[in-house]
Design brief:
The chain is built from seven helices and eleven strands. It is an alpha+beta fold.
């Protein structure tokens, strides 16, 4: 969430889309104050996590009802609502922005309006290929050995068994040979439907309004894993990649799920929140 806070701070100036005379905004509402909210490395049981999720859902539902009605009255179009943080994404006309600014100025509202316009994240382009091979070693990649992952795996006799890794990035090329076997959505039943993407993949770029002429090989809201950039595929390979005869990633026996939060390198607070909520 710290990265998201920095992102919101850097996009605080609201811009008007000259094409439609509208702006994408994120209405930030008062958060639920629960124990450990501002503390790092808090460990919770599954039951505690489920209870906290339910509290967050109930808090957002109770507080967003009035806000959504006000947005409607100002002529704003609600794009989506979030409970992982108490926020509403909306498309706002100049009149709507004036109304939101007026309400935001009230000391008792506790609201904050931030820009939800797309911003290009400076991630390097990578192909879906494997990491550079150390010609002097076999098995694990040189970088996996360098950070000690292979030694830890030998010591504790695990390379990620029973673990699930979530990659929120530019997407994932799920049929890549080094990733397809670790994809949690792979049913390994080719005679039926081999892949089940429900709860294993989510595309949050449906919340992005990309600039005109911005190309992408993946449509917005695509229902199966897709990567229009390469960075997400590379990162998933770093964490979980591995073919039958070689271990590319740090935990090649773990499973992965994915979420796409950038459209050809363009992200917004809403797309990042969408992946945090989905994962």
């Amino acid at each position: 969430m710290r990265f998201l806070a920095l992102f919101l701070a850097s996009t605080s100036a609201l811009r008007v889309d000259v094409r439609q005379n509208t702006s994408r905004v994120l209405l930030l509402l008062p958060e639920l104050n629960y124990p450990g909210r501002t503390t790092d490395n808090v460990t919770r049981s599954d039951a505690e996590v489920e209870a906290l999720v339910q509290q967050l859902r109930e808090h957002s539902a109770a507080t967003q009802h009035v806000a959504a009605s006000l947005l409607d009255g100002y002529g704003c179009k609600v794009i989506t609502r979030f409970w992982v943080t108490n926020a509403i994404a909306a498309e706002a006309s100049p009149a709507c922005l004036d109304g939101l600014r007026l309400h935001q100025s009230a000391a008792t509202s506790g609201w904050r309006v931030a820009s939800d316009e797309p911003w290009r994240v400076p991630v390097g382009r990578s192909g879906p290929g494997r990491a550079q091979q150390d010609p002097l070693s076999a098995g694990a990649e040189w970088n996996v050995k360098w950070i000690g992952a292979e030694a830890v795996g030998h010591k504790y006799e695990t390379r990620g068994h029973g673990m699930v890794h979530a990659c929120a990035d530019t997407g994932v090329e799920y049929t890549h040979p080094a990733l397809v076997q670790q994809y949690r959505g792979n049913t390994f039943e080719p005679e039926h439907e081999q892949f089940d993407h429900n709860f294993n993949w989510f595309d949050a770029t449906q919340y992005i309004d990309p600039p005109p002429g911005e190309p992408s090989v993946c449509e917005q809201g695509v229902r199966h894993p897709c990567d229009d950039h390469g960075h997400g595929t590379h990162c998933t390979g770093t964490t979980s990649g591995g073919a039958p005869s070689e271990a590319i990633g740090v935990a090649p026996h773990s499973l992965w799920i994915g979420c796409r939060n950038m459209y050809n390198g363009l992200g917004t607070p809403s797309s990042y929140l969408g992946c945090l909520q989905a994962c």
